[in-house]
Amino acid sequence: MTQGRTEHDVVIVGGGSAGCILAARLSEDPDARVLLLEAGGADTKPEIHEPTAWPLLMGSEVDWSYRTTPQQSAAGREVFFPRGKVLGGSGSINAMVYLRGTRRDNDHWAMLGNVGWDWESVLPAFKALEHHPTGDPALHGLDGPLRISLPDPPHPISEAAIEAAVELGFARNDDLNGATIEGAGYNPLTIADGRRQSAAQAFLAPAMGRENLTVVTGAHARRLLWATEDRVDGVEYERDGGLHVARAAGEVVLACGAIDTPKLLLLSGVGPADELTALGVDVRIDLSGVGRNLHDHLGAPVTFHNARPVPAGRYQFSEVGLFGKSDPALTYPDLQFAVPHIPYPPEGVTGPAEGFAIVPSVLKPQSRGSVRLATADPAVAPLIDPAYLREQADVQAVVRSIEISRELANAGPLRAWNAGEAIPGPDVSGPEALRDFGRRAAGTWFHPSGTCRMGTDGEAVVDPALRLRGTTNVRVVDASVIPTVTSANINAPTMMIAWRAADLVRSAGASRTTTAAAG
Length: 519
Hints:
519 residues; alpha/beta; FAD/NAD(P)-binding domain; 7-stranded mixed sheet; 6-stranded antiparallel sheet; 11 helices
């Protein structure tokens, strides 16, 4: 892959799920010169494409392998924080679960002032990007590039977990991307013909032969280049030990994710002025919301010894989704449970050689953290502080999620697989002990969001059209724009955002062309 032309109509920084979709869709116009810059390499590592191998990707050369700052409300731990460093981004190293979240999620975005992001407005984008042959055809697309499947046949522990959940009062839900996500059912998966369907494979790979699309891997963006006080005309990046410049005649789109997009903006002088000045970064736009509002799904896994041999898995070890409430008075599910048929101990804890786990997630965390620069050196990792468990409501939700996990493991046919709790163990009981375990064991569900949130208030970083405030030609298109995290895994919503953003960029380009012609 070579750099090609020095100037392009659109420069996309970040080749994750959002960047791959943007590059593919925008390059459908043969007159649009599109450049995609990705800091990682091509997705050639065999384990990327083998669904059962995804745990081996964590901490490998295709992972940034970030760690958080010490989490004062989580036993002072520096929590492992993986992020994809490869074409396809985190969608090339994740567990391949494709869940949209709930209607309530998107309607809440709109209620916050983000016109056009309500459920009815975003549903057409979800349907357009997917081939989702199961469930209600009125809610699922059949002609999109992204192939979605259900585990067939499912693992026996997966079916036992669903039946256990039903015994506890969960509704059986055969379509977790249907009218409601609440209940117990099989996760739709981005797996087809036994291989991962990342955005790099489903969207970008078919577009790679286009003459107007240039993809540069190993390109680590250092800063945006300013033509005027409100216009960016290029991106400086490092590759193979040298500095390069990618020029943009039209838009520059940042799609580096919820951690590296705010980092790049801060390095470019966009962010809280006092913090930038203290690091010696020239302030271009004083935008206090950049890097703020970081929040993430988290949970404390509970691991069990197996009572009989566990068959090998065919898919990605975590086939079921259970969605319930920490408080019956709630009108929406605020907890998600995965049931991997492998041991899943907390970081730093040795689990049993065989077994299964129940891994809960707090879906509506109240705690809010930040992404900040450690130094003005682009090579230095940012300071990632999710503020895990800072709010007492999150602690209580984690405690309740552990209690429900234990109830599930001892319900229905799942109890026949359970030979006893390994971690935290039966001696850990009572609210105080469970709070302590939660603080020592809770970790990321890999869904960081919100650090460049969209909105109309003074703390918003982008407007509802995803345009960076204070600029005329910069957009942000990734999970960082999500104002409040969705009620499930975030890869599907991120792809939806990118699909809609491609239309926004096209529309803006057409408008500029029409205006120029009229002039």
